[in-house]
Amino acid sequence: xxxxxxxxxxxxxxxxxxxxxNLRLEEGVANEVAAACQELADGYQRLIYRANxxxxxxxxxxxxxxxxxxxxxxxxxxxxxxxxxxRLKDHIDIVTMIQQTVTTAAAKIQVEEDLLTSHLSSVDPTx
Length: 127
Prior knowledge:
The chain has helices spanning 2-19, 27-53, 64-79, 84-121. By secondary structure, the protein is mainly alpha-helical.
């Protein structure tokens, strides 16, 4: 869990830097990274969907040890400490933050280019 928290903090800081214009990224690179992030987030979401389809675990028998094992697996997947579905959601949050950061960084550089182009077009070349 700490690794996810640390990663989120890093990307939150980078996001602030991108918003302030201190982190710049070429639009083509940003688009490729954003597309890869979307693909990864979609994959995590599919895993969550599949995990939810398996939420009812049976086939381990009616004896006490079978029921205990089923409960243990259920906690590992859904409700326990450091459960799979929760970790997948954490990963989606981080990947979404990365996607937003690179998109913001590319947008900032585009705004600056547009302002510079506008400024240069208003300069009288005969001066």
